[in-house]
Structures are given as C-alpha cells and as structure tokens.
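job 3f2a | input accepted
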Amino acid sequence: MKHSQLVVTVARETPTAEAVGIPVTSDKAVPAELGVSRSQLTAAGFEGKVGQTLVVPSSGKATLIAVGVGEGNSATAHDLRNAAAALARAASKHASLSTTLAGVGRDDRAEVAQAVTEGLILATHRYAALKSDKSFASKLKSAVLVVEAKALGAAANGSRRGSVIGEAVCMARDFANMPPAHLTARMFADRAQLVASESGLKVEVFDKDKLLAMGCGGIIGVNRGSVNPPRMVKLSYRPTKSALKGKSAGKGGTAGKGKKSSLPHLIMVGKGVMYDSGGISLKPSNPSHAMMKADMSGAAAVLSAMSTLKALGCKNQVTAYLMCTDNLPSGSAMAMGDVLTMRNKKTVEIHNTDAEGRLILADGLSLAAEQEPDAIVDIATLTGSCAAALGPKMSGVMGNNARFINQVKEASKAVDEDVWELPLERSYRRMLDSYIADMKNVGGGEAGAITAALFLDEFTGGHPWAHLDIAGPMWSDADAGWLQRGATAHGTRLLVNLAENFRRR
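job 3f2a | predicted structure (505 res):
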C-alpha cells in the first residue's frame, strides 16, 4: 500500500503543468518569467524569505507561484525542503506542478533534489482514510523538478532517494495517526510482515506465548490489562552483494551470539504502545490524550526506516525490534506494587503503570544486547519530562557512549530533525532503588527523562547505546515547514541516515 500520493520526477525541460513554481531570492533580480517587478512583489507582501509563496496572476494556462528561497544562492538543502513544502501547499488545488527549485542553493544537486522531493511529498500527505469529505486534501499528484542537463543524473538520484524516504515518513505518520481500534498490536505486526516482504527484510513475529517462554516480563506485564495480545516484531536487514560493491565485507555470514559480524551491526528498538491510557495510573480525561494513539511512534519510525534500507543500498547490517502492546486498565491490569521480571532477569517494582514504555523497551534492549551488536539505539515517546524540557521542536538524546551519541547528532543535523543531549547523570541512579526488587520503574518527580534513560541503561549490556525521547516532537498542532498537522514521524529520517552512515567505534 502506497502512503504518499505525489510522484516526483526530474527533467531538463519545463513540461506542461497546471502550476509552475518559480524560486525568488530576497536580494537578486526577480526571474523574468514571473512577469512582475520586485516592487510589485513587495507591495503584495512577498519579500523572498524562505518558504514565502505568492500566486501571481498570469495570462498563460499555468498558475505561476513565486516561492521564496532567501538570499542569493545561500539557501541550504534544509531551507529548500521547507520552501518546497510551502510551494506544494500553494499548488494544492492543482494536479501537476513543475519547478526549478532543485537548481537553487549552495549544496550539491543530489542533496538539494532529495530535500525538495521530501518537502513536496511530506507537505502533500494527509491521513484522510476516515474522512468522508476529502476536499481538504491536496489535489497535487505529480511534480517535475527541472534542472540543467549537467545536473540531471545527480538530481535524479537525489530525487529517487527523497521519494523513498518521503514514502517511509508518510507510512510512519499513517500508522501513528490511526485510531487504536484500527491498529492493534496484532494488526501492526501483520502490516510489518507486508512491509518486510516488500522491502527485502527478514521478519519474525513473536506472540504472547512466545514472549512468555522468552521471559519478556516487561511487555507481558504492560499487556495484562488489554484484550488485544502483544506482539514483538524482529526485522533483519543484511546488504546484498551489489550494495556492498566497493566495500570490504570480510568473511562469514550473520554473527552468532558473542561473535562480531564482518559488517557493522546496528540494532534499533522502537516503543510500540498502540494506545496508552496510563493503565491503573489512569491519565486525566482531556482532549490531548487522543494523541496517545501515537504512543507507538517509535515503533512506526523504526519499521518505516527499515523499509528504506534495501532501496537505498545501505551497507550496514541492521536489526530492529518493535515492542507492541496497549496499556489499558482492567481487572487483570498490572498494579502498582507488582514486581516484573525482565528478559535479562532483573526485577522491577511498579510504582507508576503510566511509566510503561521503559518496561517494554527493557525486553527489547535485553534481546538486542544478547546479539552483541556494535551499537543500539532506541526511540520512544517516553517522558512528559523531556517534552516539558525541550518542547515540540526537538527530541532528547542520552546514552552511554559519546562517539555513538555524536553519530546520532550528526544524523540529526543532516536531516533537520533536532536533538539535544541530556546528561546520563549516574548519581541519579539511586532514585530508582527499590527495597524489594532490583529497581523501581520511576525515579520520582525530578529529572524524569534522565531517570528513565538510566532505567533503560540497565538493559543494554554495556554496549554503545543511545536513547531518543521523542515525546515532544511526536505531534504537530499545525502545518509548519515539512511537518503536517498530526503525527510527525519524527526520527524516521534520522534513523535512515544513522543506519546508512553508522560506523563502528
């Protein structure tokens, strides 16, 4: 099933289209084809700032749209992603668009074309499956990026990457926007199997009985209040020989326990709480908690990122665990004071059933650590504390290895998904001490994001690890740049970049 509606291609000549997007700088001459002067644009309130748009009256058949790109050729790929998103919204009443945006800016043509393609695709995406009146949705179905002949190959490659990644982000958004009854853990696992078959991934699905047999007490405990059984999905990607061309792959196949693969091996673990009521520690009833259907955004980001790796020719070995369950109250639900035994045999006393994400991640991290990977990254809508500290624009990153955290930061900067490092303050570990178990699942009212990360660190086996808390940027209340209202799929593009560029320490 395709999740994005827009098809983007690259050409050297301007095709016939219903709308034409014309880049305009804030300081240089206005392109003659726009047919207006700088003073006329200024009078209309258009200054050429990044992301500004203005529909210009034209005697021709095509609608002309001025799109601002800032000063001269200083626009970055990040700027042009947002400019493309604004252009897509301005052209939303038209079925076809052409633009020379991919020929602007200081970055290389492949990078720019990728960014423009992503901006166009992500701004036209809407979750409209349950709307009877779909008139609000964009009508834009095709876009052509017009570039010079010498840049055609690079731009085509970049646009193809942008289309693959844009589709993945739209997929993650759709999953996170789906109502709880439309996407249970079992349904999500079924979808993951389809995605895996289409993406060249190996997939294994673990049901409740298997999870019990494996000693995954965290996910079993959280699931106790739900009538929908849990699922854990394991996805495995190993590059083909063609993907490894030009890179020494060494000898041997997939590494066994305790053995290093010939390829760098990254493991991703995603929180997949399909709906979070808080369990017995019931969340207050206010409209904002309707977005708790998006508490599986971490798992959605991991699945969607994994779906791109074969198409993008990723040269690293990547494994993923999607930890999926509801967190609901009932007569059988996990209670405060209960003690759970995790996959790695550590015991956890429950002091807050709404701190459930770390419990299911603990099992996934334990399984990841058993594979002796080169690094582990987990991604989760984990704490309100992180959202309160960093707001809706960035996620928190914490971990036990500076070099690996720096790789996460590099990926963040490359894709314009901001992260901010918080300290893994070891002295706070005592806040998790329990007098009857190895630890509690919460550390008190202070430093909630940090104590949550310290909890997770207990299950990493000392392997290089980074934790992404995306509770703040998981949701957008309005369209902004390449973001659309609703679930954002934040972290999807970051994980794709991290997987492709991952390096052993």
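job 3f2a | The radius of gyration is 24 Å.
job 3f2a | closed
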